[in-house]
Design brief:
- This protein is an alpha/beta fold.
- The chain has 3 domains: about 160 residues, FAD/NAD(P)-binding domain (3-Layer(bba) Sandwich); about 100 residues, protoporphyrinogen ix oxidase, domain 3 (Orthogonal Bundle), CATH 1.10.3110; about 100 residues, Alpha-Beta Complex (Polyamine Oxidase, Chain A, domain 2), CATH 3.90.660.50.
- The protein has 12 helices and 19 strands.
- Strand 11 and strand 12 form a beta hairpin.
- The structure holds flavin-adenine dinucleotide.
- The site of flavin-adenine dinucleotide has 34 residues, from helix 1, helix 11 and helix 12.
Length: about 450
């Protein structure tokens, strides 16, 4: 006999957990979360090994919404540190402050002059841009050739693994700071400490890494509501029955998906014509995170560093032990190194690793003599959703059908978007509000949209 639930939630990452938590608060709480992993948290989960706690690349908490802030602060009460970002770029053999476009002070004079001169040209004679420009054209028109060629283009090529002439600008509004001309000029003449961008201040759990957030949310669910090690195998949308390994058939009335959209469409059905074709057009990259535990204290005083240049195989390096002293044993440091690849491309990690370690020595972060007792690779097969020109029309096609058939698909991967943890928690809340027809407690801010970020 099939198990019955009113709302079946696929995936126990932050989106699924938040949907279940808010459904409990808003309605009868009859929902079931099925998660394939043995622990909740998905992409925001952490692993502890030999006293080191590693996330899947540093997961820093950014708060922009009053409700999101209250929720996270209550979930992590007594376990939250507030930090002022110290993020840098390493290029041309020098460290400069993030964001590159506002901080060329410290670069070789020739490079800094070129960046500022070309930027000023865009201010005096703003280039004409198409209505929907590519990221490449937009960057050249907004920042000029110098900043684009030294940072914007090589860094984003490394991250997105997509020709930037095929990438849209839809994702960048919140994530790429756009300083004023006066700020670009000031940042070329002196080391300015203006806090640009959405993550100038961030929070991080004192203990437990980003896993602490998922664990706190999971602990607030009803016993038995979250079923771990239970991958969903198929969903029959017509019969409203899912098959879940370890449980069997689960009959549901309403379905909330948080799996990567392409995976969900592949395992569910039947679909009307066009949905699978649309899903085939969606692309993401994969991120490979190399976590290191190093037997030396404070290998860096920074939080994270961007590496735009091709000679470095990675695009970013960050330091967990600078987020929280409990992330690494006393007298050691811990760091993460991030690479990306096109989803589906084979990456030879055994070959990559020695090249990475050599690069870390070449830029002075590691020493030849360093002992590295822990090395842990964490692949994230679907990491960043690629905003190419196919994404918009494909999403319209898919979500028009979801709307008609009452399927909720939420979170960073269910909604196939570039978002962060607070927003993911709010996605779960809004989904529960739609399903229950009620606004979450806290009427003052309950249904407030995310405020635009600086
Ligand atoms: C490299 C990287 C760095 C990031 N850094 C930050 C940061 O610093 N700050 C920040 O706020 N956000 C950051 N994020 C974003 C953050 O990770 C996401 O917003 C959030 O974790 C998304 O949660 P989710 O529930 O939508 O997706 P997921 O966490 O992916 O949850 C989906 C769940 O579905 C499960 N699942 C998959 N298939 C099945 C199946 N067949 N059956 C059952 N379960 C299944 C997965 O195991 C997973 O638990 C980062 C993301 C990446 C990739």
């Amino acid at each position: 006999m099939a198990l019955k639930t009113k709302t079946l939630i696929l995936g126990g990452g932050l989106a699924g957990l938040s949907a279940a938590y808010h459904l409990n608060a808003l309605s009868d709480g009859d929902s079931l979360v099925v998660e394939k992993n043995a622990a909740p948290g998905g992409t925001a989960g952490s692993t502890t090994q030999d006293g080191f706690t590693f996330d899947q690349t540093g997961h820093l908490i950014h708060l922009h919404d009053p409700y999101g802030q209250r929720l996270i602060e209550s979930l992590l009460a007594g376990n939250l540190r507030v930090l002022n970002r110290s993020s840098w770029i390493y290029s041309h053999g020098a460290y400069t402050r993030y964001p590159f476009q506002a901080n060329t002070y410290g670069l070789p004079e020739r490079v800094a002059d070129g960046c500022v001169a070309e930027f000023l040209k865009t201010v005096h004679r703003p280039p004409r841009l198409a209505k929907r420009p590519s990221f490449k054209n937009w960057s050249l028109a907004t920042f000029g050739k110098g900043i684009s060629r030294s940072f914007m283009l090589p860094y984003n090529e490394k991250l997105w693994r997509t020709p930037l002439s095929r990438l849209t600008t839809e994702w960048q509004g919140r994530f790429v700071p756009k300083p004023r001309a006066s700020e670009v000029l000031r940042g070329a003449l002196l080391e300015q400490t203006t806090a640009f961008g959405y993550n100038a201040v961030f929070r991080y759990p004192k203990r437990g890494g980003s896993q602490a957030l998922a664990d706190a949310l999971a602990a607030r669910l009803v016993p038995g509501q979250l079923r771990l090690s239970s991958p969903v195998l198929t969903v029959d949308l017509r019969e409203r029955v899912a098959t879940v390994r370890g449980i069997g058939e689960v009959a549901y009335e309403r379905l909330v998906n948080t799996l990567p959209l392409k995976d969900f469409i592949a395992l569910a059905g039947p679909w009307p014509r066009g949905v699978r074709e649309a899903a085939a057009k969606l692309r993401c990259n994969s991120v490979y995170c190399l976590n290191l535990g190093v037997a030396r204290p404070r290998v860096s005083d920074k939080h994270w560093i961007y590496f735009p240049e091709k000679r470095f195989p990675f695009y970013r390096v960050g330091f967990y032990s600078n987020f929280s002293t409990s992330a690494a044993p006393k007298g050691t440091s811990s760091l993460y190194i991030e690479f990306s690849a096109r989803a589906g491309d084979k990456v030879n990690l055994a070959r990559l690793e020695p090249a990475v370690l050599r690069s870390l020595v070449s830029c002075g972060l590691l020493k030849d003599s360093d002992k590295i007792p822990v090395k842990l690779w964490k692949p994230i097969p679907c990491a960043y959703v690629v905003y190419d020109f196919n994404r918009g029309p494909a999403m319209q096609r898919i979500f028009a059908h979801f709307k008609k058939s009452g399927i909720e698909s939420i979170g960073r991967y269910g909604a196939w978007k570039y978002s962060f943890m607070e927003e993911t928690l709010l996605d779960g809340k809004r989904c529960a509000e739609r399903l229950s027809g009620r606004a979450a407690a806290d009427p003052e801010h309950g249904s407030e949209e995310l405020r635009p970020l600086k």
